Amino acid sequence: MEIAVIGGGHGCYASAVSLTEQGHDVRLWRRNSAAFRPIKHSNIITLTDHKGKRDVKISVVTDTLKLAMLDAELVVLPLPCDTHTSLAPQLAPYWTEGQVGYLTPGSFGGYIYAKAAIEAGNTANIYFGETGTLPYLARKHGEDNVRISVYATRLPTGIYPLKDADRAFTVIKKAYPAAEQITDLLDGALMNAGPIIHPPLIMMNAGPLEHFDVWDIHNEGTQPSIRSVTDALDQERISLREALGYGAPHFPLKDHYDDTRDEWMYGNSSHEKLTDSGDWRENIDLHTHRYMREDTALGLAFFCSLGRWIDHPMPISEGLLAIASGITGDPLYASGRSLESLGLVDLTLDQMRKMLKTGITK
What we know:
By secondary structure, the chain is of the alpha/beta class. It folds into two domains: 2-189, NAD(P)-binding Rossmann-like Domain (Rossmann fold); 194-358, N-(1-d-carboxylethyl)-l-norvaline Dehydrogenase, domain 2 (Orthogonal Bundle), CATH 1.10.1040.10. Helix content is 43%, strand content 17%. It contains 17 helices and twelve strands. An eight-stranded mixed β-sheet has the order 5-2-1-6-7-8-11-12, sandwiched between helices. A four-stranded mixed β-sheet has the order 4-3-10-9. It starts with a strand and ends with a helix.
């Protein structure tokens, strides 16, 4: 299958090499052509995983969006969510009939891409899927190599528009056999694990993060009291899902930490593999890191906005967002991703469901 991978981050490199090894024809795009220099002529990215170390040759490496998108059946977008508003208008002219975009994950970013295409006058029927996490626990080690510590084993995926879910999911499943179809795009967005895992870990570890040069929030930073807050935050997410009419499976985060429970998105022993790798022992700037600017300012703000929209209390979510605003000095709800910022806050729940099923009116 022809696949475009958009972006040059950890997940983008991991996607490019993994999909290539599955036999797909991959075109990898990133806007920073200078950063592509180490692989520009060879097209080779070195992959290290449980199978060892090897070179993977990507079909096309380009800084031209039109070339990357041309004839791609699937467009994989493993990008931080704070790139959506700037990238969506750039991609808008290049979407073609029947293409599927896959946000891994998205915090409802599929709606942003769909709306941008329509506003650009693009009348093609385009479909979007969102899953709950990146399909890989991965870290780049330079601009020509990547290490994948864990491959996802279950990827709950919501589709937009829902009326075309079977067609879109069939395409996604060709590339990601671990994908599991749920319902609509909001169902998928409410599976996003980042806004649940990372806000408590960075804010409750603020002292050591600012004191030590590097700190592993997933190892020594994941202590019982912090886990308790994370579990309570996740229960708010599940309660919000139920209040919005979404049923099980909810993929509770407890399953990630306890191998005696149901298999989570990364399978059993994934937390231990993550900490054993050492790749997450890093410097985290609480003002700029994506755990703050993506998972908190966008992901957690989006969850809070849904709670406010249906008058469903989210005290821990709101509290963490308020603390984050205090740390950064920015009004993160007002500047973050919300139904207000998306122009959807005046919809009723029935109107939202209809839009998610049939798509935005052209």
